[in-house]
Specification:
The protein contains nine helices and 13 strands. It has helices spanning 2-13, 54-60, 88-94, 138-150, 208-227, 268-271, 283-287, 291-300, 306-311; strands spanning 27-32, 39-44, 100-105, 108-114, 124-128, 156-160, 173-177, 199-202, 233-242, 245-254, 259-260, 264-265, 274-277.
Length: 312
């Protein structure tokens, strides 16, 4: 954990991040949902829009203006022909300031890099060293849990399935941060009051037998949902320590309901109650943010056949 926190601080000093978290004036508002106990968080983060401005990224030195495009790997399935932002060789060519921290998770090699368009302090993208698809498998859950345990529960781990907030569906990756997610305050037994479907699996304590049992139940639920229609269904997952014990939150998603009006694409941060707004057309949503706003956004991405999951 110390290595990650120190790397984040160094990347801020090196001006790799699009805004310095220690000095940037961020606007944050909160809204308490009495129905489920969650305090939704709305973040106005216009600095994130710079991530799509190539000229500005080059001016700042975040993106190498002298990169050799011929060296960059592009997954042939990407309709926009973009290079993969998560392949280490591409990162070395495009983002020479980025520091990658090697990790081993569930028997595979991973690399953690500070997310320059960060949402939370200590926000890293943890990417597979191998270019493999962002498709859910048991390994995904095992790697997430191991990452959470390796950081002694301090880093929350988020997985966005394809069509559920994953920016690169062809390269396996997670998002991590030390900031608590609003869903962690969900009242026990109030899953049905949350505006989108969520399945919670407490792991009781840090004993390996209890952890294995909780992981098995979470994996079974995820597989049951996805097997219903792998073309249309997707998933978000959060692993966090709630109180003193780890907990797995599974959010079934439908790719046909990937976005919400006033917000756009809804990913793992959003379904966990952390609503991130950054573009000009989202500013009004932030200014008028309320419990009703959050519930409306999350209701729009609730799978229409969620009752099948609830019954399971």
């Amino acid at each position: 954990m110390d290595t990650l926190v120190q790397t984040w601080a160094a990347q801020a000093r090196d001006d790799f991040l699009l805004a310095d978290p220690a000095s940037v004036d961020l606007l944050v508002s909160a809204a308490v949902d009495q129905r489920c106990g969650v305090t939704y968080r709305f973040r106005w983060m216009p600095h994130r829009e710079i991530r799509g401005n190539v000229m500005e990224l080059e001016r700042r030195g975040v993106l190498n203006p002298h990169r050799d495009e011929s060296k960059l790997f592009r997954d042939p399935r990407d309709p926009q022909g973009r290079h993969c932002f998560l392949c280490a060789e591409n990162i070395a060519e495009c983002h020479p300031k980025e520091v990658l921290v090697p990790m081993q998770l569930a028997g595979r090699e991973y690399l953690a890099g500070a997310n320059f368009a960060w949402i939370e302090p200590d926000h890293f993208t943890v990417m597979s060293a191998e270019h493999v698809d962002q498709v859910y498998s048991r390994h995904v859950l095992e790697a997430m849990l191991e990452l959470h345990l390796q950081t002694e529960g301090q880093f929350r781990v988020l997985y966005n399935g394809p069509g559920a907030g994953a920016s690169i569906p062809w390269h396996l990756h997670f998002q991590i941060t030390t900031t608590p997610m609003p869903i962690e305050r969900l009242h026990p037994g109030s899953e049905g009051e949350y505006p989108t479907i969520v399945c919670r699996f407490p792991l009781d304590d840090w004993r390996h037998d209890r952890i294995a049992d909780g992981l098995e139940r979470a994996h079974f639920t995820a597989e049951q949902w996805l097997e219903g229609d792998r073309q249309e269904r997707s998933i978000n997952i959060l692993i966090a320590t709630v109180g003193t014990d780890p907990c797995i939150f599974v959010f079934p998603r439908d790719r046909r309901y990937a976005s919400a009006s006033g917000l756009g694409l809804v990913g793992g941060f959003e379904v966990a109650g952390d609503l991130v707004l950054s573009s000009s057309h989202e500013e009004e949503t932030f200014r008028n943010a309320s419990v009703a706003t959050a519930r409306d956004i999350l209701s729009q991405v609730c799978p229409p056949d969620w009752t099948a999951v609830a019954a399971a």
